[in-house]
Amino acid sequence: MTFGDLRRRLEAGEVMPLGWVSSPEPINGVVLAKAGFEVVCADMQHAPIGSETMAEICSSVIAAGAAAIVRPPLFNAGAIGSALDAGAEAVIAPMINTAEDAEWFVKWSKFPPVGERSWGPAGVVRNHGLTLPDYLEIGNRSVSSIAMIETREAMGNMTAILGNPHIDGIFVGPNDLCVSLTGGEAVDPGTQIAMDAATEIAKAVRDAGKFAGIFAVREELALAYKEMGYQLIVPGNDIMLLDRGAKAALSSLKGG
User: Fold this and answer.
1) What is the Cα–Cα distance from 81 to 21, expressed in whole angstroms?
2) pTM score, two decimals?
3) Which of 5, 189, 193, 231 is 20 to 30 Å from 225 by CA-CA measure?
4) pLDDT tens digits, residue range 84-124?
5) How far is it, in rounded angstroms, from Cα 214 to Cα 236?
6) How far apart are the C-alpha atoms of 132 and 160, rounded to whole Å?
7) Longest C-alpha distance within the chain, in Å?
8) How far apart are CA 140 and CA 128, in angstroms?
9) Residue 249 CB coordination number (10 Å)
10) Secondary structure (3-state) at 68
């Protein structure tokens, strides 16, 4: 994939399975890319991935022919800038609950005059073969700012969040959303209240002319989310996929 393809393909409505790296191992991003994931995310929020490892994952994924994206820690402007400087084509910002949160996110993920992102994309030009003037010209319209909806509050403010013209897409955290909607009584995205919420979000995003993504903890949920209209769908992180593969291999060798 060339720089900017990810956003163009998502805006065209394409479904793109999303590989997810939750371990501090750049090789895992390469394995996912080589396995066929055209987009791979490095998770800095809920994984022990620091800025140096994140940059290595981005470089490795891009070299393997896929697009790299990053989920930074909660409300960390520096990590957002570092991810984009490393060549990430999108940032998934957690816990965007209000219009003000969305504005904050845009401020640090877009260059002036849209935002106030600091200039320093050395990794971008190196990893993608661009010039600095190239990136200044196309950066804002090629990089996607993706806001996470994962609370009851965020759902109540969806219209305002989606109304920000520089929020390019939405990503659902179904575990957190379930916990929030059930008042801390459940953490199962397959419950009716969580599935109904996922359906409502997908429709709102589609009506706003934007794209939606979601993390799927089980295969049947991934297929259901695809039917709802989600495009960036995570069928489990690298650790979950390793666990499933290991168990399947053992089961086969042990005769089921």
Assistant:
1) 19
2) 0.96
3) 5
4) 999 999 999 999 999 999 999 999 999 999 999 999 999 99
5) 11
6) 34
7) 62
8) 16
9) 10
10) strand
